[in-house]
């Protein structure tokens, strides 16, 4: 068929025409009715022609196109419910083609006009996994087609009834993110706090995040013992805010973070990256992937990374190494086996503490380079993991997935910190820790028919285990002669601690069974229901200065519930409401001698989501409420208590707020990620301390938070250049109390930090990029600590700094 001649419109205009004008052109009633019909699809990625032909048959539409037009192109596939226009938009994503509706209800394909810069930039190839599992690599996108962190179902952001952020590979590259800490700093509604040099902690909606998953499998996240994951091995990071008990089991109603690894590719690729930055920051990466046999049935990937960097803080240095390797093997046309492993080692020359406050909490105005430790201090971390996954696709479109992960973490620490209870002192400690984690899961998923409609079901069971051993000793190194204004990091010899002073070993086991279904009672209405049963056990042995104690507790058949409703208002917008909960075991006992019930976090959420330009842009607005109940409090009247202390489940904390977020492409040259969060977390009830009722739960975290990141590619003769900007703003944070009889207040007023990016595509293989963070060199406290008397753990924010990166793609 002849090629059509089209005016040179922008891709944005073409997308809008495709999604909005096409239905209006279908004048005949039958055509209009057909355009509005939504059907459920599960079309695998593959050759574009085959995918289009199958879609045409299942959608019941006539689709006209030249075979030459589709020759050599691959479609990312299609899953979920779509109308014909929306389904075609997704099938054609990344192909350079678009579909146009005709008056008789049929569709025809045409080639999009070349975007600015396309002649000089490497073409994007969307591989088979890109929509099936949400892979973001090589899409150039700030969003993803699907994710499963919230429900274990591969759903789009719009189809998931909770607040979601996805940090894609493109966004991580654009903003020069290196570790999970960088991801958290750039994610809406998430807070990073550092109570010491190498002690990152993550908070969301007022609560501490305790767990993390890797490709959906549970793993430990404890900033004291486990290094912050190196992003070189990950395709994206998926974050669901609020309670996530359905997929994670025990935990707090804060958020779930899922680290999704890079996978082998069907075509060979080799990426080399080198960076140099402020304070002697040098980083290199090698990333190779592709087929390992002629048939392409065996594929591999390997990532190597090394970084050596100093800091704006005196003495501090970090050396980080990463090795990651994975293999995929097609055991048959419907079966695939994946295996792999990683090794990350972080040698950190850093102290426990940070910057101290005066005894009354006032700012001592110390230099940002201040280091109140010694040159023999360290906080080294080593992480190893292996993983395996077997997937089988049955002929009836049901899937079987067996996964396993084993991780080993070692921590070696020797450090000090300052205390100031109206006089200076300096404790020190030396510890070694070993953390062994295991996670295994099996689930089946697929469609089923009920009352003449297609629905989806997931059934699964899992096992998690965490075994930690901590041993070491501590003591006071100095309590006189401390001069914080004339510190000498070489003034004290390395001490010898009694490493038999403390020995603590705990073992946590969690066994689970879960079921989730997505019901489709109407083309515009979806209902997600889920439940989970957990068996949880905690055992610990502790020896402190020769005194040994043993304790433990268990939770049997805890029931977690999930319910969500999504209603499509039109082609682009959906409203939703959801409820989910999560349990957190606690070790306190009541007057009966039995353990108190677990703390229960109940998450209520309503919102609206928008999806535009075939899924290239996502937007959302949500209202949330979290009630955390059964919080243990020491009983005021201990009469009749059979043990030393009895507790009551009398505490309740409520967190309420609003979240606004937009991410994706506003046009082919402009990527955007922005989010605003307001969180009000307060004590609603505390029978043992009524004065606490109505006060903020934790004033060290901001009520208001805004984060923005953009990248824009220039037009015309400057199309090889791109520019970007970002801002992170938060409201005031503070801590108040009494320190050795003296009232104190430590605080950080509201502040904003700006960042910029400048990139140049020298050729289809070579890319150069400059990132400047804290552009205006804002001086601020990133973390406050909790008390001026203990720890000296306030942290200055990083001053203005730059990173120059060169990438070469074969």
Automatic annotation (TrEMBL):
NCBIfam families: TonB-siderophor
Cellular component GO terms held in the UniProt record: cell outer membrane
PANTHER family on file: FERRICHROME IRON RECEPTOR-RELATED (PTHR32552), HYDROXAMATE SIDEROPHORE RECEPTOR FHUE (PTHR32552:SF74)
Keywords noted in UniProt: Cell outer membrane, Ion transport, Iron, Iron transport, Membrane, Receptor, Signal, TonB box, Transmembrane, Transmembrane beta strand, Transport
Domain Secretin/TonB short N-terminal: 61-112
GO molecular function ontology, one term from the record: siderophore uptake transmembrane transporter activity
Taxonomic classification: Bacteria, Pseudomonadati, Pseudomonadota, Betaproteobacteria, Rhodocyclales
Organism: Thauera linaloolentis (strain DSM 12138 / JCM 21573 / CCUG 41526 / CIP 105981 / IAM 15112 / NBRC 102519 / 47Lol)
InterPro entries in UniProt: Beta-barrel_TonB (IPR000531), Beta-barrel_TonB_sf (IPR036942), Plug_dom (IPR012910), Plug_dom_sf (IPR037066), Secretin/TonB_short_N (IPR011662), TonB-dep_rcpt-like (IPR039426), TonB_sidphr_rcpt (IPR010105)
Gene3D superfamilies: 3.55.50.30, TonB-dependent receptor, beta-barrel domain, TonB-dependent receptor, plug domain
UniProt-listed GO biological process terms: siderophore transport
Main location: membrane
Family recorded in the similarity comment: Belongs to the TonB-dependent receptor family.
Record-given protein name: FpvA
Places the protein is found: Cell outer membrane
Signal peptide residue numbers: 1-26
Annotated membrane topology: Multi-pass membrane protein
């Amino acid at each position: 068929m002849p090629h059509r001649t089209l005016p040179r419109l922008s891709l944005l205009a073409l997308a809008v025409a495709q999604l909005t004008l096409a239905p209006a052109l279908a004048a005949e009633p039958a055509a209009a009715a057909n355009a509005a019909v939504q059907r459920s699809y599960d079309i695998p990625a593959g050759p574009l022609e085959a995918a289009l032909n199958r879609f045409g048959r299942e959608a019941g539409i006539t689709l006209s196109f030249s075979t030459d037009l589709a020759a050599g192109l691959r479609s990312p596939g299609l899953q979920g419910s779509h109308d014909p226009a929306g389904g075609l938009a997704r099938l054609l994503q990344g192909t350079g083609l678009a579909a146009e509706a005709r008056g008789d209800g049929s569709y025809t394909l045409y080639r999009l006009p070349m975007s600015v810069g396309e002649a000089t930039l490497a073409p994007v190839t969307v591989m088979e996994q890109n929509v099936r599992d949400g892979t973001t690599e090589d899409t150039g996108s700030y969003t993803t087609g699907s994710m499963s962190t919230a429900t274990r179902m591969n759903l789009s952001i719009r189809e998931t009834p909770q607040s979601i952020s996805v940090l894609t590979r493109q966004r991580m590259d654009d903003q020069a993110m290196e570790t999970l800490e960088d991801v958290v700093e750039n994610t809406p509604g998430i807070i990073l706090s550092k109570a010491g040099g190498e002690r990152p902690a993550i908070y969301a909606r007022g609560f501490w995040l305790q767990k993390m998953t890797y490709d959906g499998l549970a793993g430990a996240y404890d900033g004291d013992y486990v290094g912050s994951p190196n992003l070189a091995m990950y395709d994206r990071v998926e974050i669901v805010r609020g309670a996530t008990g359905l997929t994670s089991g025990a935990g707090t109603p804060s958020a779930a973070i899922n680290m999704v690894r890079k996978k082998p590719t069907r075509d060979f690729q080799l990426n080399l990256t080198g960076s140099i930055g402020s304070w002697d920051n040098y980083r290199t990466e090698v990333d190779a992937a592709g087929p390992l046999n002629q048939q392409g049935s065996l594929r591999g990937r390997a990532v190597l990374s090394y970084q050596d960097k100093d800091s704006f803080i005196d003495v501090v240095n970090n050396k980080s190494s990463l090795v990651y390797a994975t293999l995929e093997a097609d055991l048959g046309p419907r079966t695939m086996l994946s295996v792999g492993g990683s090794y990350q080692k972080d040698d950190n020359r850093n102290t426990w503490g940070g910057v101290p406050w005066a005894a009354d909490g006032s700012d001592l105005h110390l230099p940002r380079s201040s280091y109140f430790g010694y040159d023999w201090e360290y906080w080294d971390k080593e992480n190893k993991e292996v993983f395996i996954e077997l997937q089988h696709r049955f002929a009836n479109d049901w899937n079987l997935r067996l996964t396993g992960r084993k991780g080993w973490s070692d921590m070696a620490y020797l450090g000090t910190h300052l205390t100031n209870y109206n006089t200076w002192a300096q404790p020190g400690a030396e510890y070694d820790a070993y953390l062994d984690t295991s996670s295994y899961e099996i689930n089946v998923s697929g469609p089923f028919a009920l009352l003449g409609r297609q629905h989806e079901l997931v059934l699964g069971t899992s096992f998690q285990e965490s075994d930690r051993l901590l041993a070491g000793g501590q003591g006071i190194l100095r309590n006189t002669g401390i001069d914080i204004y004339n510190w000498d990091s070489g003034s004290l010899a390395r001490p010898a601690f009694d490493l038999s002073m403390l020995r603590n070993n705990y073992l946590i086991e969690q066994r689970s069974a879960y079921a989730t279904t997505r019901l489709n009672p109407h083309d515009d209405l979806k209902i997600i229901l889920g439940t989970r049963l957990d068996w949880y056990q905690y055992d610990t042995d502790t020896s402190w200065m020769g005194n040994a104690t043993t304790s433990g507790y268990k939770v049997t058949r805890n029931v977690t519930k999930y319910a969500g409703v999504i209603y499509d208002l039109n082609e682009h917008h959906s409203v939703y409401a959801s409820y989910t909960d999560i349990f957190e075991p606690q070790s306190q006992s009541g007057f009966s001698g039995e353990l108190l019930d677990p703390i229960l976090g109940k998450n209520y959420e309503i919102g609206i989501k928008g999806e535009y330009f075939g899924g290239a842009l996502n937007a959302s607005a949500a209202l949330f409420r979290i009630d955390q109940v059964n919080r243990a409090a020491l009983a005021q009247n201990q009469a009749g208590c059979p043990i030393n202390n009895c507790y009551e489940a009398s505490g309740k904390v409520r967190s309420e707020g609003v979240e606004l977020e937009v991410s994706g492409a506003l046009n082919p040259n402009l990527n955007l990620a922005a989010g605003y969060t307001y969180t009000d977390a307060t004590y609603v009830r505390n029978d043992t301390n009524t004065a606490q009722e109505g006060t903020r739960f934790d004033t060290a975290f901001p009520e208001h938070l805004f984060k923005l990141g953009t990248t824009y590619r220039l037009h015309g003769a400057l199309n090889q250049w791109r520019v970007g900007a970002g801002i992170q703003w938060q409201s005031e944070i503070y801590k108040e109390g009494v320190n050795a009889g003296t009232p104190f207040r430590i605080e950080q007023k509201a502040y904003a930090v700006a960042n910029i990016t400048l990139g140049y595509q020298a050729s289809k293989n070579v890319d150069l990029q400059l990132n400047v963070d804290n552009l205006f060199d804002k001086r601020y406290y990133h973390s406050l600590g909790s008390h001026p008397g203990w720890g000296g753990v306030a942290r200055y924010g990083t001053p203005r700094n730059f990173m120059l990166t060169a990438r070469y793609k074969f």
